[in-house]
Write a structure and sequence with these properties.
The structure holds two protein chains of two kinds. By secondary structure, chain A is an all-alpha fold. Chain A has two domains: about 10-55, no CATH class; about 70-270, MetI-like fold. Chain A contains twelve helices and no strands. Chain A is globular, with a radius of gyration of 24 Å. Chain A starts with 8 loop residues before the first helix and ends in a 10-residue tail after the last helix. By secondary structure, chain B is an alpha+beta fold. Chain B has two domains: about 5-230, Rossmann fold (3-Layer(aba) Sandwich); about 240-350, Nucleic acid-binding proteins (OB fold (Dihydrolipoamide Acetyltransferase, E2P)). In chain B, about 25% of the residues lie in helices and about 35% in strands. The longest helix of chain B has 18 residues, at about 165-185. The model of chain B has no long low-confidence stretch (mean pLDDT about 90). The chains are: A mainly alpha, B alpha+beta. Chains A and B meet through helix 8 and helix 9 of A and strand 6, helix 2 and helix 4 of B.
Chain lengths: ~280, ~350
């Protein structure tokens, strides 16, 4: 229910002005990315900060797709991000359910350790991780990235999933068990369908995190075959020049999967699936 | 159909003992109401019967068979939750038929039973709706329907009406009573509302602090409360408790008034006298036991509640039938119906018999 209150036109204008400013501020870098991507190379410096380029070109996109290894990077990133998101979400869902529903010995300890892992700056552990990965011979492999990303994302994803499970009333499972379900059946038939928004959110979050990760990818990968997209972007920077147009075009293309993904899951994110479950 | 026995049931949460020495036998087809203030353990007891909460000690039997370790789904009991706990992603029909779905009943049988239950509860036009499109009362009906469809050996109700508004509550209370008459199935009903308890129960179990205070028919509890707790918990408005000391031929109120009681009564240990507001009468000055000043007069139409401050005794509530033309500040002369007075020992236990004579 929205309560319609009559506020002064000034307040309304102010509100929308503030919103517009914020949206403009937040979206400007994206606009600039897209603008440079479609600006012909020769105009990038001559027109400088002009908001709209005087001519448009799709040449940068063509070059990126045809003349560079971008599609490889893209594929590698897709493999790494999707696999990481899938594995992390599965583990986090299982762990989150356990944290939410069961009491067991060492629960607080595990939670504390998981929290502590979130406190370390990544830079501190890059060297040890490198040594470990090198020792098991996984350098330059996508597998190493998947393992590292999964390990780093599980704590946060677990807390996220736990909060979603916490949001589902225990009564529902108990009703299911009274109705004849085993605990697992209750989980599968009642809790899981209601957790879809949570699973979607977690998948999306982990996917985006893995998709844009640069630090580990830079350290653990240096062969062209296994480069992920953020590392690949750096190949547009050569010793003497930067291919701004191509780099931005690649950036625009890299946004596509993230956007698609969020369009796909957003209806789960906003939908209150559990409404109507309990109380009047 | 089920005869349920609880023998020396105890419940601990770690080192904390929340319930002990629960002994109760519930006859087949009986309507038992567990009642008590919040935190008394009544819901925990129900959940132990349902199998949702492990039993720490003691034995729980259904028709003579030990059930302590049996999973909830194998106990053949249906439960109606306080929150209704409807499955939000299933429509009304599927919610009601879910137990049959899980047991892989043929879809025709399922549809038939759901239809019958929906008809009984007046839900026929709503079967395709999701729970979120239902009102509170309708959700409550669906929750009952889900229990009925199963044809269980016992129904468990956990404060099923506490989320409804007053009018709906009365209506659903009737519905549950009718349901019990029709099905003649054992029902165990948890509530903190004594009106629900008194109107629905064959027998009431009053719980406090994890212990059974008294088991009896509604009239038993009203007329012969086993202790001060039950006396004050059952009956509305609450029973007046007046401090007394034993005297020669009766008990002495704090203001010095002697209340005579019949010979043979063990009143030597009496420390409290209980009298219900409806057993106090407003009388002419000469025949009163004590007098006070009306502090607040509540005109309820059918009854009048007069909150009276009596010097030396304290606050006394008098309930009179019909309209009594009294107002704040008036003097009220009060007489007790002595055959309806209760005496309690210092530990709160009832003293018998308590019949008195002026």
């Amino acid at each position: 229910m929205s309560a319609h209150r009559h506020s002064s036109p000034l307040a309304v204008t102010g509100k929308y002005l503030a919103l517009a400013l914020y949206v403009g501020f937040a979206l400007f870098p994206l606009y600039w990315l897209a603008k440079i991507a479609v600006t012909p190379d020769k105009l990038i410096y001559t027109e400088g900060t002009a908001l709209v380029p005087s001519s448009f070109t799709l040449e940068n996109f063509r070059t990126v797709l045809v003349a560079t290894d971008f599609l490889y990077y893209f594929r590698n990133s897709l493999v790494v991000s999707l696999t990481t998101a899938a594995i992390t979400t599965c583990i986090a869902a299982a762990a989150g359910y356990a944290f939410s529903r069961f009491t067991f010995r060492g629960k607080r300890l595990v939670v504390a350790i998981m929290l502590i892992t979130q406190m370390f700056p990544l830079l501190m552990i890059i060297a040890p991780i490198y040594k470990i990965v090198a020792a098991v011979g996984l350098l330059n492999s996508l597998t190493s990235l998947i393992i590292v990303y999964t390990a780093f994302n599980i704590p946060f994803a677990t807390f996220l999933m736990q909060s979603f499970f916490d949001g589902i009333p225990k009564d529902l499972e108990e009703a299911g068990m009274m109705d004849g379900c085993t605990r697992f059946q209750a989980l599968r038939k009642i809790v899981l369908p209601l957790t879809l928004p949570g699973l979607g959110a977690t998948l999306g979050f982990i996917f985006t995190a893995a998709w844009s990760e640069l630090l580990f990818a830079l350290m653990l990968i240096n062969s062209n075959d296994t480069m992920t997209f953020p590392v690949g972007l750096l190949t547009f920077v050569s010793k003497f020049s930067v291919d701004w147009g191509q780099m931005m075009a690649a950036g625009v293309l890299a946004l596509v999967p993230s956007c698609l993904f969020f369009i796909f899951i957003q209806r789960y994110l906003v939908q209150g699936l559990t409404s109507g479950a309990v109380k009047g | 159909m089920a005869r349920i026995e609880l023998q020396n049931i105890a419940k601990n949460y770690g080192p904390v003992e929340v319930m002990r020495d629960i002994n109760l036998e519930i006859e087949d087809g009986e309507f038992i109401v567990l009642v008590g203030p919040s935190g008394c353990g009544k819901s925990t007891l129900l959940r132990m019967i349902a199998g949702l909460e492990p039993i720490t000690d003691g034995e729980f039997r259904v028709d003579g068979r030990r059930m302590n370790e049996v999973q909830p789904r194998d106990r053949d009991m249906a439960m109606v939750f306080q929150s209704y706990a409807l499955y939000p992603h299933m429509d009304v029909a599927r919610n009601m038929g879910f137990s049959l779905e899980i047991r892989k009943a043929p879809s025709q049988e399922r549809a038939g039973k759901v239809h019958d239950a929906a008809k009984t509860l007046g839900l026929t036009s709503l079967t395709a709706r999701l729970p979120k499109a239902l009102s509170g009362g309708q959700r409550q009906r669906v929750a009952m329907g889900r229990a009925i469809v199963r044809d269980p050996s016992a129904f468990l109700f956990d404060e099923p009406l506490s989320n409804l508004d007053a009018a709906l509550r009365v209506e659903m209370r009737l519905e549950i009573a009718r349901l019990h008459q029709r099905l003649e199935t054992t029902m165990i009903y948890v509530t903190h509302d004594q009106v629900e308890a008194l109107t629905l129960a064959d027998r009431i179990v009053v719980l406090n602090a994890g212990k059974i205070q008294q088991v009896g028919t509604p009239l038993d509890l009203y007329e012969r409360p086993a202790n001060r707790f039950v006396a004050q918990f059952i009956g509305s408005p609450t029973m007046n408790i007046l401090e007394v000391v034993p005297a020669d031929k009766g008990v002495l109120l704090k203001d010095g008034t002697v209340i005579g009681i019949s010979p043979g009564t063990d009143h030597a240990s009496a420390s409290d006298l209980g009298v219900r507001p409806e057993h106090l009468n407003i009388v002419p000055e000469g025949s009163a036991h004590f007098s006070g000043t009306a502090e607040l007069v509540e005109h309820l139409g059918s009854d009048t509640n007069i909150h009276t401050r009596v010097p030396g005794i304290g606050q006394v509530l008098v309930r009179q039938h019909g309209h009594v033309p009294l107002k704040t500040g008036d003097t009220v002369n009060i007489a007790m119906e002595l055959d309806k007075v209760h005496l309690f020992a210092p530990d709160g236990q009832r003293l018998e018999p308590v019949l008195g004579s002026g």
